[in-house]
Amino acid sequence: MGASTTGAGVTPLPWRVARLVDRRVETPTAHTLVLDVPGWPGHLAGQHLDVRLTAEDGYQATRSYSLAAPAYGNRIELTVQRVPDGEVSPYLVDTYAPGDPVEVRGPVGGWFVWRPEQTPPVLLVGGGSGLVPLMAMLRARRAADSRAPFRLLYSVRTPADVLFAAELRRRARDDRGLDVAYAYTRQAPEGWQGEPHRISRTDVNTHGWPPDLGPLCYVCGPTGFVETVADLLVGQGHEGHRVRTERFGPTG
């Protein structure tokens, strides 16, 4: 994920030095990093930032990561999935230590965002680590005590791959107006009704909102997943401009 931050009449976003202050293990391959970023200007749920690493020989690698939670002063959170043979994600997940610096630039993006003043129903559809910016929206909704009804449909390989598993269970139980549903593609939990499958028209019809309610739909995940879900939603009758998408590729 990423976006240009330069252009005619646009001031480039500055690079800021961020330092790791805490981390949480979400799955064996995904960690949430809590960073302190002096001067961070704040962000909206759904935005992302660029992370830049610089090697001793001067080589630089930059990747974009979604912000996983609302900002708390200068503290921000990223949830990073380790990508095999990646240049950035293995370092962030396996090596990056408290106090170590990285450079960050952001926030980036203004279309794939949810604002607390928005009142229409919301459908969130995430595939794998595409849940991350959607989780920021769930957290922002709770922080703002919003009454906008939310539904989350999360497509994931196995129960062991579920990000924020304990928090999702707690939110599904305690957050009024929130429904959470899963589609497992490789292995379902014991007692699960149905067989593992890729997200389908039935999933979207069952767990989404009727188009006549005018919901906002946010879809995030790998490109093929996003295109499939967006087509299903438009085919169901949702207006294209109310289906907002964010996709990511294999870089890490």
From TrEMBL:
Keywords associated with the record: 2Fe-2S, Iron, Iron-sulfur, Metal-binding
Keyword set includes Iron-sulfur: yes
Query: Highest taxon of the source?
Result: Bacteria
Domain named FAD-binding FR-type: which ranges? Answer: 13-114
Query: What are its cofactors?
Result: FAD
Cite the Pfam families for this sequence: FAD_binding_6, NAD_binding_1
Q: Which GO terms describe its molecular function?
A: 2 iron, 2 sulfur cluster binding; oxidoreductase activity
The answer, when asked if Iron is one of the entry's keywords, is yes
Protein's name in the database: Ferredoxin-NADP reductase
- What's the source species for this entry? Salinispora arenicola
